[in-house]
Sequence to fold (245 residues):
Amino acid sequence: MREGREGGRDRDGGGRGGAPTRRPFFRRRKSCPFSGPNAPKIDYKDVKLLQRFVSERGKIVPSRITAVSARKQRELSQAIKRARFLGLLPYAMR
Amino acid sequence: MSFYETIFIARQDISSAQAEALADTFTQVAQEHEGKVVGREYWGLRNLAYRIKKNRKGHYVMLNLEGTGATVAELERTMRINEDVLRYLTVRVEALVEAGQSVMMQARARGEDRDRGRRGGYGDRYGDRYGDREPRESEAPAPVAPVGGEA
Fold:
């Protein structure tokens, strides 16, 4: 049973363009866009702000991509869901 | 007493005056049940992101109110009964924003209200999968036939 998985595809790194598994560069650690002074407040009415954190299809973008802190991500997802309920944001597109 | 924000969406076929009248009746209801409406914002006839009861647009009205659970219960009950109301949402807030000062009104004042194409956002760069999950069942290659059937 195990073999089927391993033989299937290699998931780590190498897939894209045959680059070595160890990448020579480090991506800069981004900081949470909702922390720190004059950070925007998360509000379900602020469609323009929320729209930056949903994908093209209307899904909520994971925090590991957006660098939103866990606590703010919970607030954000709540806000997005409220906005969806009110027809301000779509549940799904296409 | 606590603070609440109630937003309701009225049918697209009624006039904005009728939507305001609807807000008046709800204000009345709140007053009769231990509460009071301290602010009101009419956001106008906005496009809905998806169809709700066959409506593509709706009149959005936000009521800022101060009251108790009884106020909210009665208000929501009245809205449920009213057929012009497509949807409503009541959220308890720590402090009320002054009427006309919510994000929505500020955006309208800046003329950003019009529905435009997407701006910013994620998606173009990552697709929807972000490249770090196992493939879905449907996308995965056909499972290897169980050994021992033919050979």
Observations:
- The radius of gyration of chain B is 23 Å.
